[in-house]
Amino acid sequence: MVESGEVTQVHYEGALHYCLTDALADTPKRIGRRHVRFLSPFDNLVINRKRLLELFGFNYQLECYVPEAKQRYGYFALPIFFGDEMVGRMDCKAVRKAGCLRVNNIWLEPETKIEDELIDALASALRGYQLALDCEQLELVKTQQKQLKARLESRL
Prior knowledge:
The protein is an alpha+beta fold.
């Protein structure tokens, strides 16, 4: 596939990876404003935990198989991807009967700076997620960093 040009070799931090050539052509040449994406634990970027740790230094475990008393981040915490960085995780639940997206907690990685660009992107992503789940309300229960909760609530 490399010989035919369908796949391109990509060298990144001393490791060899492969990418569909068409996907590289679709990649924006200039990156503007960074966005937040909430990733599924089964997303291709997340599913290979060893690669996720090597590429992003992000140690992730899906805790739905962990006894509740031993869960650190919640039953189904979603990794938070901001720009090109893994910046945290979010434990949330769509409470369908109440029409509410309940964000139980947001944890940011220790090196993540709580800056306006992140707050704006996170608020926008939360509103988008709320709408995608057909929830009328959004409830931010808590965040690990108090400063994050106050600043995020001011934009929601």
